Amino acid sequence: MRGGVNVKAKRDAQPVYTVDAPRRGLSCFFWSLLALLCLLLFGAVIVGSVLAGWSSGLATARAHAEETAAAEVQRQCELIPADLEAGQLALARRRLEALRLETPLPACLLAYAPTATLLFQRSQARPTATATMTPMPATATPSAIPPSATQIPATEVPAAAYDLEALLTEAQTDLERGDYPSAIDTLSAIASLDADYQRELVRRLLLAALSAQAEALYRAGQLSEANILTDRARAYGDVGSLSYEYFIADAYLNGQHYKTTNPAEAVRLLRRIVIEHGLTHYMQGTAVSELQDALRYYADALALQGDACQALDQYTAALELNPAVSYINRADLTSRRQDAELNCAAARQAGGSPQNLATAAPVGQQSP
Questions:
Q1: Which of 344, 354, 257 is nearest to 299 (CA)?
Q2: Overall pTM > 0.70
Q3: C-alpha 339: how far from its chain's center?
Q4: If you ran DSSP here, which 8-state letter would residue 102 be given?
Q5: In whole angstroms, what is the distance from residue 355 CA to residue 348 CA?
Q6: CB–CB of 250/272 below 8 Å?
Q7: Crossing angle for the helix pair 89-99 and 21-86, nearest 10 degrees?
Q8: How many CB atoms sit inside 10 A of residue 170's CB?
């Protein structure tokens, strides 16, 4: 009887682990979730490190490329005196032509170009030009050219060694056939050899050659080089319509330069081109693209410093432009405009007057 009772009691007993099973399952779920979050966080850290390394590497590569390019320009400048000394005039001329394409123009270009041009022309001179040449003194040989471009005196090669009349005729021929760079080099060489030789004619021809080459560069979109030549031309007289070309090109170049560092100034300059002067097709329409991009940068800066209403105006102005080539993401810009609109409405409801909201601190400073 006692044994039967014990067996029945055992049959009726409930398993003790059935109550704790859900708790253990929930605990496993939380631990699994925690492990997943840690894994995602670890992955995010790795991705961020990779992106940071890539950005740093890109900046380093760009800086290295710029240093390499500058070093190559310097090397070419240093090789020109050796070429002239060795009589390799064609090689020196090719180096000078390559340096003419650099921006900004290397200092050695203006120093060596007249001398190299004269030496090259002497080697290729026509019989009519060589017939009147006098022997060159020993002290004026190419070997006397110093290694530093900034130390070359303008009278190193005596004017008596060249037929200036023949050189002037050749410069006029170059000018008539549209070879403005050659005309500029030859006329500059004549002026450096004898500043008083046919002074008014040489100056007038220099003005014409520099102006014509500057205009060609403006049409080709090489604005920096064109502005440099226009500045040179001004030393010889009135440049006429090039003053307007210079004004617009200067505004465009400065607008590009200030777009990220001083977007308010960039917007002012680019508006002058697109809105005030109506040059919507300037630089094949990229002036409108640059203005839209500058408005985006300006709006971002205003939003960052808390001027939501002004930021809203700039975002709206940027979205109203429709350039052929756009540098912005319109969907992203629309989203930012909506955020600025909400923040502006909140600021007005908080008691900000329209006059106060329209007065912004300079970009980069917090509004009071």
A1: 344
A2: no
A3: 32
A4: S
A5: 11
A6: no
A7: 140
A8: 21
Continuous segment of H or E residues that includes residue 227: helix 223-234
Local confidence pLDDT in tens for the 368 residues of the chain: 444 445 444 455 555 444 455 555 666 666 777 777 777 776 666 655 545 554 555 455 556 556 666 777 777 777 777 766 666 666 676 677 777 666 666 767 666 666 666 666 555 554 433 333 333 343 333 333 333 333 444 444 455 557 899 999 999 999 999 999 999 999 998 988 888 999 999 999 999 999 999 999 999 999 999 999 999 999 999 999 999 999 999 999 999 999 999 999 999 999 999 999 999 999 999 999 999 999 999 999 999 999 999 999 999 999 999 999 999 999 999 999 999 999 999 988 886 544 444 444 444 333 43
Query: What amino acid occupies position 224?
Result: S
- Alpha helix positions (H), 87-106: 89-99
How many angstroms from the chain centroid is the CA of residue 96?
23
Give burial (CB, 10 Å; 0-12/13-18/19+) of 131.
exposed
Cα separation, 311 vs 297, whole angstroms: 10
Residue 124, both tokens: 């290729």
DSSP H helices in 259-329 = 263-271, 286-304, 308-320
Q: What single letter denotes the amino acid at residue 304?
A: L
Q: What is the signed CA dihedral for 285, 286, 289, 290, rounded to 10 degrees? A: -140
- Nearest in space to 157 (alpha carbons), one of 109, 107, 116: 116
